[in-house]
Amino acid sequence: MWRYAPVLPLADGETPVSLGEGTTPMQELPELAKSIGIARLWVKDEALNPTASFKARGMSAAVTRAAALGVPGLVVPTAGNAGAALAAYAAAAGLPLRVYAPRSTPPPILATIQALGADLQLVDGHIGDAGKQSRAFAAEHGYFDMSTLREPYRIEGKKTMGIELAEQLGWTLPTHVIYPTGGGTGLIGMWKVFAEMRDGGWLARDVEFPRMVVAQADGCAPMVRAFEAKADRAVPWESPETHASGLRVPGPLGDRLILKALYESNGDAASVSEETIRADTLRLSRASGIDTAPEGGAALGVLDLLVLQGRIPADAEVLVFNTGSGASYRF
Length: 331
Hints:
The chain is α/β, with parallel strands linked by helices and 331 residues long. It has 12 helices and 10 strands.
């Protein structure tokens, strides 16, 4: 992703903390598109990033800046993949790291965090509870809080997904982007960079931006509820439950920015059941050869639902994100 260094937060002469993140493959699935009832369908597989998720992009940018600014250490709450990614980049930068994760986080992800040398603290409850402990630790010990949208650089790394999808489509854009949304930095970053690319001459001035679509689970859908209410912010979800741990974020800090992107793009938001997530995770894997994470299954399930409801038309050209690896969830 550092091929795009001129539009990333990197000072002249500075070397980024990089493990080779970015340039993930995008695969077209014509048979699956036909079965769903749309014109074209692609899946972008973020599992092929370091530590097997899209989180590598944001952490590469954030740790690069943290190291340059001389922070004494890093701390983060995580639903799983963010902690694993930060553990890798903190190790590469030689920075100490403490990670707070719910006990319900998939064991393979917790094992990765520990293997990379982070100080892992397990928390009873959800990521919101982990966030409280993380912020308290940061305040007491002077470590830098790397929580979603509590620093400005993770979103800059995530926006490279938007640059890549445009480049891979010959500097055009799909009609819809369906994004599994927990904290939402990926969606926010892409919506931000589409305008930056147009204004910088990377895209045609008259380009139509994609409609951004939030995909969530029925057991934790604060953004769907807020969108349906036409609200400008989300109310935290009570008792969040879903096996797609990346979606188990009851109160996204970026709620207003997510909703802004949905409203500005004339987008949509929907959630699906645990049964649908499991079935569509397998469906996407077997249609593509990608070891799909549950979050990717949720995105496919939402696509199917919105097409059936007439909210995505038959001539749509849709990009679905698989944000992580199915292997991270097996235990």
